[in-house]
């Protein structure tokens, strides 16, 4: 929520926040639109950010690195206090919600690593291999994408 306030020495301008976070001001404004961070407004309409916003931005960037969407990051941030920096226990509770998602990604990466040298079903563009594992493009019945990599059986039609 945007509030109007008088400048506070502990508040950061959008330029200062951009410099400290490594994000462009346009990205910070977008994060604000998405409800990931919040700014107060001066009487002149300028944004001012509490220092704890830096931690929220770091959290969002970490979430993106593990494949979470901005919406998923926002939902997680909604579980944290916005008026102060969360303590270690609060961060830990939110981080545990990522555990299942990270485990799924690890499993997908392991599957990819195991199947990368063979047919990853279909999309591999190997006509010779596809004639063996996916005759007549039977894997397409499973839907779009690399069906075998998504967990479909390696023998089409089974």
Automatic annotation (TrEMBL):
GO molecular function: 2 iron, 2 sulfur cluster binding; DNA binding; DNA-binding transcription factor activity
Sequence ranges assigned to domain HTH merR-type in this UniProt record: 11-79
Entry's Gene Ontology BP terms: response to oxidative stress
Sorted UniProt keywords: 2Fe-2S, DNA-binding, Iron, Iron-sulfur, Metal-binding
S-adenosyl-L-methionine among keywords: no
UniProt keyword annotation of Kinase present: no
InterPro entries the record matches: DNA-bd_dom_put_sf, MerR-type_HTH_dom, MerR_fam, Redox-sen_tscrpt-act_SoxR
Taxonomic superkingdom: Bacteria
Protein's UniProt name: MerR family redox-sensitive transcriptional activator SoxR
Lineage: Bacteria, Bacillati, Actinomycetota, Actinomycetes, Micromonosporales
């Amino acid at each position: 929520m945007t509030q109007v306030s008088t400048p506070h020495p502990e508040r950061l301008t959008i330029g200062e926040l951009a410099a400290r976070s490594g994000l462009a001001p346009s990205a910070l404004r977008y994060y604000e639109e998405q409800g990931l961070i919040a700014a107060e407004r001066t009487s002149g309409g300028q944004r001012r950010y509490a220092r704890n916003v830096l931690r929220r931005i770091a959290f969002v960037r970490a979430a993106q690195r593990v494949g979470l969407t901005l919406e998923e990051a926002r939902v997680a941030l909604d579980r944290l206090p916005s008026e102060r920096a969360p303590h270690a226990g609060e961060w830990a509770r939110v981080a545990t919600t990522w555990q299942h998602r990270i485990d799924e990604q690890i499993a997908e990466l392991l599957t990819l690593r195991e199947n990368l040298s063979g047919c990853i079903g279909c999309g591999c563009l190997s006509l010779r291999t596809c004639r063996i594992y996916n005759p007549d493009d039977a894997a397409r019945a499973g839907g779009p994408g690399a069906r075998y990599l998504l967990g479909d059986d390696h023998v089409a039609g089974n």
